[in-house]
Amino acid sequence: MIRLRLLAVAVALALATTSPGRAQLFQIKVVDSQTGRGVPLVELQPTGGPKLITDSNGIVALDDPALLNKNVPFGFQSYGYSQWGQTFQTTAGGSVQIALDRRNLAERLYRVTGPGIYADSIEAGIPAPIAHPLHNANVKGQDSVQTAVYKNQIYWFWGDTLYEVGFGNFRTSGARSPLPGQGGLDPSVGVDLNYFVNSSGSARQMMPLSDPGPVWIDGLFTVKDNDGVERMLTHYSRMNSDPAHAFEVLEHGLALYGDLTDSFSRHRIYAAGAPITPKGHAFRQTVDGQEYIYFAEDYPNVRVKADWNSVTDVSQWEAYTPLQANTRFNATAPPLETDAAGNIVFGWKKNADPLSADMVSKLVQQGFIERDDSPFRLEDHATGRPIQLHRASVHWNEYRQNYVMIGTESFGDSFLGEVWFSEAPTPEGPWADAIKVVTHDRGASGDYTFYNPTSHPFFDQEGGRFIYFEGTYANTFSGNNSPTPVYDYNQMMYRLDLATVPALTRLGGDFDDDGDVDGSDLLVWQQSLGTTVASGTGADADGNGWVESFDLAPWKRRFGRAVAGGSPPAAVPEPAAAMLATIAIIARCAIALRSRGLKSCHLSASTNWTLGLPLSVS
């Protein structure tokens, strides 16, 4: 039910006595009815006056003489919130507070970049939580953030920056901020960005190449070099500056951050057609004792061992793909890898094109696979409608005991403005059910885009129950010809309470579906190893319809856990050394099954007792 509550209307005489300027305005505050927090980006349309927009405190400082000291009807609307209308007396020096009901699962918190983040609050005499509430580094707008925790600080980089004065910087801008609890703000309050600036105080170029063309970065990550020193690297692309060829890549490669210059420089130049490069957003995962850095541009489909020699040698990078190693994707005749039974083999392979949302779509359209055969197959949890994922970011979440994804949809209710949450037991999936958490739908001419979303695991709170993500709020591609003043082409922060999101996966590793992960589940996996099953059933943890060694990863991670009342389970110790030894033996069985065509593996009695399994396993 759409509700709008008028909470308080009062003439604030104290304002008139403390500041003559403040006495000449009427303060309107719009809050979230669930949390009581101010809501940014609420549009107020007064009859007979211009549209007004709340700042990041949810404040509008009404100082238009034509609208003061009279009864004025106001209309309220905001993406993902209820719409309503109310008339109230706009007495100079007075104030009113309005509560809007939120339809989004995620709560809009504040604008991260751009001018006037707290402009109305400052005018009304309300303190702002950030150091630069009005202007910062001459930034008017910024596009598509990349973040990494490097040397105990958060580093922020943006693809393009528009200036308030002058044109802009198209060679990547950057800033730093302290971590929460180490001098940084609580992420529910804001982010204090300390920009890298040039001599004029404007956000400067972070990769100042002498060659022409904008420089964009993605796939930002950190790794220790061979001397044990932490280094920060990123994929870079130098683009064609001719507007007719705006998305043409002239050069790309791996760039290295220099601590002395606080800027990036070329480290490796990649061949134009290199199939596997760091793209999207990075996260880490340990597989059988080996740490990897994973990358998700849409789905997690690229990884590399987290060591200096591997990350700097592009031939060592791997793609998660159904293609054969050393091949390229051809939509009409894809070089798919299949097993002896004709099943498509999804796995990590070198020198091949990664599986992406676009590749899945083309394989399905051409009849090479059913969509349910793919481990990457996002769909609406409520309706089963397929979701064409555009961009996403992924990280491990302790509260859900799953990998969690925040992604935007192509061709949804708004184009690139619908944000979805999903989860999976492994980075490889299955990425299936998803729930919409943010909408920017308001009809064809009123939609907005919110693209390239980025989750921030360094902001997770209460054991991961609260997660934070941001994206670029822009009218680009939306069909909306009325950009929102100061908000357009800037970053918006959201918070999602995962306690409000129903479970989207069964407990990863619970192969017998009895509510816990124990030795019986290992037995199910071992007995069905090498067989084909209905996608996502039995011991098929990654949803590719085949029980293989990859499917054991969620069992190892969750051994000893149980589900109680639908709540995420508490953490338990890692499996003991004897357990890990047993897992290693079974993993070798998996290799034998696949490479030698064996039908079963038998564990010795000396192995079985460590897990409490029957002495005869076949």
UniProtKB/TrEMBL annotation:
It comes from the Bacteria. Residues 1-23 form the signal peptide. Keywords: Signal. PROSITE patterns: EF_HAND_1. GO terms for molecular function: hydrolase activity, hydrolyzing O-glycosyl compounds. SUPFAM superfamilies: Type I dockerin domain (SSF63446). Pfam families: Dockerin_1 (PF00404). GO terms for biological process: polysaccharide catabolic process. InterPro entries: Dockerin_1_rpt, Dockerin_dom_sf, EF_Hand_1_Ca_BS. This is Uncharacterized protein. It comes from Lacipirellula limnantheis.
